Amino acid sequence: MKGISISENIKWVRESIAEAAIKSGRDPSDITLVAASKTHSADDVKEAIRCGVDAVGENRVQEMLEKHDDNAYLGAPLHFIGHLQSNKVNKIVGLCDLIESVGSKALIETIGKRAESLGIVQNVLIEVNVGKEQTKSGIMIEETEGILEYASRINGVKVVGLMAIPPILDKNNELCYYFDTMYKLFVDMCGKKYDNNSMQFLSMGMSDSYIDAIRTGANMVRIGSAIFGTRSYYS
Q1: Among candidates 51, 48, 45, 50, which has minimal Cα distance to 64?
Q2: CATH hierarchy code of domain 6-228
């Protein structure tokens, strides 16, 4: 934590984002700051929104529902950024502005059916398992084009970009390899033309890596501890 309050932390993060964006030749306003609020209270979320984060991201469906009941997300778009099980889809489609963690054709189909039943189109990001880790969800890089083509035929779903959680590494140059790999994939997929697809966002980078992610091409970052501090398991 760089400051002593959520507002000071967000100010510091914004300054860091701006510096990284400018160094990579981009406008800082093009970077979407998602406050990852896993385990933090509804009041903390409300404070982050008051201080100007662009969106709020939640990892757990039940926690999202509880905070939603407390009106925690008023004033900012809501993203789901955690692993999503098919049996939880009905609870979040239509509630979230963006589901960032869609990593299978089956999940795309389930989301599409639910969205159609509500008469809406659900925006999603395709999660790519860039490190090919067995413990993580997401598609393999070589499956990306195929899943975009598949999603283009599913009513009720619009793919608006890609998301990745690279492996945890000690060396920044190794981490940047995965960020660079994702950026090249993103650029490649931007050149594909499918219905229901619009490659707007590349979501990658968290509290310990977002500066490198932005320098490498990310335009959406998910920041938790750098905003809220260490996780507080509220009751």
Answers
A1: 45
A2: 3.20.20.10
Pull the structure tokens for residue 36: 């990852």
The number of beta carbons lying within 10 Å of the beta carbon of residue 76 is 20
pLDDT 10s digits, 125-160: 999 999 998 888 899 999 999 999 999 999 999 999
Pairing of strands 98-102, 122-128: parallel
- Is the entire prediction scored with pTM above 0.70? yes
Asked whether residue 1 carries a pLDDT value surpassing 50, the answer given is no
Q: How far apart are CA 93 and CA 86, in angstroms?
A: 11
Distances (CA, A) of 169 to 5, 123, 209: 29, 31, 10
Amino acid occupying residue 23: K
Question: In angstroms, rounded to a whole number, what is the distance separating the alpha carbons of residues 214 and 133?
Answer: 23
How do residues 32-44 score in pLDDT, each as one tens digit? Answer: 999 999 999 999 9
For the chain, the structural domain boundaries read 6-228
